[in-house]
Amino acid sequence: MNQLQAPPQSSRPPSFLSQLRALRRNGIAEDPVKLRALLADCTDPIDLDAAGGLLASEKVRTELVKVNGIRQQRIAILGSSTLDTLPNLLTAMTVRDGMLADFATTDFNQWRLEVMSGAPTLAPFEPRITACLLDEEVVFDSVTQPHNVAEIEQSCTDFARELADWTERCRGLTGGLIVLSTIPLSARRSGHVIDYAGKARLSAAWSAMNTQILALASQIDGVIVLDAGPLAEVAGGSAASDRMRLAAGHAFSPEFLQAYAEEITAIARADLGLAKKALALDLDNTLWGGVVGDAGVGALALGRAWPGAPHRELQVLAKSYAAQGVILTVCSKNDDNVARDALSSHPEMVLADADLSLVTANWDPKAQNLKAQAKTLNIGTDAFVFMDDHPVERGAMRTFLPEVQTVEVGSEAATYASTLAAKGAFNLIKLTQEDRDRSELYRAQAARAEASASLSLEDYLTSLDSRLTLEPISDLNAVRITQLFGKTNQFNLTGRRFSESELRAGGAIRTYGARLADRFGDNGLISAITLTDGNDGTAQITNAVLSCRVFSRGVEEALMSLILTDAKARGLSAVTGTYVPSAKNGRCEPFFADMGFAPDGEAWRHDLTEILQVPHWIDATNAMGGNDAD
Q1: 581 prior amide bond cis, ω within 30
Q2: Do 472 and 514 meet the contact criterion of CB atoms below 8 Å apart?
């Protein structure tokens, strides 16, 4: 080759950042789906940091605000070390997951002073989430002899007490969720103690302190405590390099901050009701090893021994999810009878029929099948996580249904369960009994859909034997009612979300929950409504939400009949309300007109003269202490 000849052009695909810059030049809002897909493929903390910086510009944020369906979030970040990359990481991750976050931060190591001085930065910001990430120096700052175990023990005890007081005050000032984490102990610090008995005492004191920190999650309302141990495992360690620690005040590695940011993003999703609800699983070489149509049931790799152990581990994880309310479905390219035979007859199968809400095994495109599953279950495709061993199937799902969270797995089946668990896609702020019962509820939903196929709509609704009960907020339902306001998006009249303390304030505020049961089972608490009584003898519907799984059954009419009848029984003259449109609540627009309300300026008003009747196929009961609706 002539030395003066130009080298051939590289055939390598454009880098992540070059693709992101191209999207930014062309206008982010022009292709938000491609943006989210691009961010979903990025796993490098340095690239995510850079991406967050690019997305944080005012121009890009103005474009993102206009994207249909993106949700606003407010996150405050406090810490005892340099955390300058954390807002960028969180920006990239929240945009990837359909959120646009605003951030409030304080100066270096000002976490104590900010709260003790009345939160002058945080209080006006009104964060929904305040994340406070502390390192070991918060304990050792008050230790004069770092080898003196007794002194360290006392500092651990004092700090646990101080953090509890700080958390109480921070919660009172900000009102949102407070996210703490346990504090890793470095080998550098424990290395100051040279006798093994002393090392054991130091570890015990440190563990006791972290145990007390973890206990704050159950002692103080609205507090979440992350365990730094699993985060460090995912990140391959927690500590920053010695150079970055000494030169720039970094306590944590980029990989650890990435894992931490993923947890904060999961909390932000759950806070807005965006946690995933369903897991769609492939069969061949995913739930079991081998291709059942070729090898037969007896030749499948599944069990406690290798090579079946990885597939069993994945099934055990999926079963744990199902027990906590995650909807499990099968989405497989297979003959239906072959797939079902393997699921029911293999002796090492962990997942049983009772764990699976739907089994779809055919030769249609999986994106098409998953859309059909979403329709049957009456949930959005954006509620799904999809797991498949085949890269072509994963690529097709990302292309045709980018809102589905497709789990990227490698060729090694041994990593499947760990990869899925690390995603935290289903994480909730607090698990309720209704969450635990969700799998059964959606299996019943699938049975209802099947039963409706051969009846007229009214005959079908009558056959359901539906029973609706309106009840007041109480210790037994407060968490679920709060969760309904936080998670419900499609039927959400105003978008107002409330803390549990707001809903239980009493006085002029009246909070209702509604339960629905039918011949297929108990749907649990499916609706929440908050009214505020005025001084003029009227009440305003502050917000009303309804679970999507009971749409189109006359529940809305029955519920409003109970509410309006209860208001009339309390001597009120009218009930008013407003509809505030959002990207997902378009079905609510005709609600007030359909319920008999009349326009009243920008609001709606019902004078409680002619209250609509409960549909004849629903048995409606008012357990508020008032009268049943007719």
Answers
A1: no
A2: no
